[in-house]
């Protein structure tokens, strides 16, 4: 150790230690690239100089409304410029951003506003009726409502509340941002899906968001001035931290309110989109509407997550000019936390073999210290591509905990790791691959059946657009696989055909014992709502 034993005079000070925060990215970008496009939405075009001015006015205006450091400011907004501005403007006045899922029911919105104690809500006119109903249910003080019109989409203000642009006009463009004194200070509050019981409030800190954003720059192999399309909702893990990340590279955020194949293909052609993230349902949308694609001369980099994409989908989308990287994470780890980092040894793989590798969830991203797959005793499973265990996380990209719920927080962090609840195998090269959510494993006659495996098989059928496999109660076997299938337009299939197709490719006990054709219920982020299908399967 030598001289290291004596560190007198080597302490932290204002010169050598500054709390990490993604707010610093925007300040830097506005200085370096003031004229570069920062936010684009139809005819709406704002440079970095414009962006930081609007963000600063928002921070000042909220401060004038009485928002204090540590207070919560909620938003119920689609992916429009005001939502991107809120990601900087709310924390710039010291407050905590609570971006609320726009598809939630009134009761859940009311619960979130009560539980998070929001002081202000920024709301799109389309969702004001739901918010008004929710306000009637609140037990605590009612928040101030700011209406955020979206004239680009023809969603105009109702006029019942102060409008967003009028709010900004009250703000001081020279307002001094209230930067965190400690990087552990709370930055954002995100509520989990809450498929059972009340949703839990996941709290992010400035340090985690900063490191997540920086780490994804490396994972996505980004260089200066990317053009990012906002398909991942900004209420979903704060858009996987991508809006915070873009100013670090002088990137352009292209807002997308309504997610359609046409909108995505047009943004790539018209705006030069280079990157986007999205659930596998987005990839499916693109491969099933190839006629809407317009010629472009660049590869689009895609992060996909939310559920393992079927190898069949991955095999189809790459030739269309998309390089897909499978990532994986949860709200509790700021969005993506593992990536299927591509290895040169796989370059020769083609077709199904290549797609099967790309369907892995991979290895830890640079800001996650450790990802393990363990048994109940926190012992690592054998890396043999067969043994199953639970995915565990440790690192700076893990949440602070669940708001006002120390019991759930302690359970989630038992043993010094965040317990994901996801079941995976681990390959000899350390890459993990999800086998299932713990609750989605089907146990039939003592045999464990991975719903993901059965779904991947069925997705290879030419008539299948989407599918979900859940457990159906069975007197003899305890439970058996039940497949819910959404067919492609212009295609048909019978239950017998689907069953025969599966039987040729899977063990008999894994073959669906019931097949239901219907539109699948989905969350706003494109995840199939299996909990609803499990309930339905009980009645079949």
From TrEMBL:
Domain AMP-dependent synthetase/ligase: 27-403
Catalysed reaction, written as an equation: 3-(methylsulfanyl)propanoate + ATP + CoA = 3-(methylsulfanyl)propanoyl-CoA + AMP + diphosphate
InterPro entries: AMP-bd_C, AMP-bd_C_sf, AMP-binding_CS, AMP-dep_synth/lig_dom, ANL_N_sf
Annotated keywords: Fatty acid metabolism, Ligase, Lipid metabolism, Magnesium, Metal-binding
Domain called AMP-binding enzyme C-terminal: residue spans: 453-527
Pfam families xref list: AMP-binding, AMP-binding_C
GO biological process: fatty acid metabolic process
Cofactor: Mg(2+)
Known EC number: 6.2.1.44
GO terms of molecular function: ligase activity; metal ion binding
PROSITE patterns: AMP_BINDING
Domain of life of the source: Bacteria
Similarity annotation: Belongs to the ATP-dependent AMP-binding enzyme family.
Subunit annotation: Homodimer.
Protein name per UniProt: 3-methylmercaptopropionyl-CoA ligase
Source species of the chain: Pelagimonas phthalicica
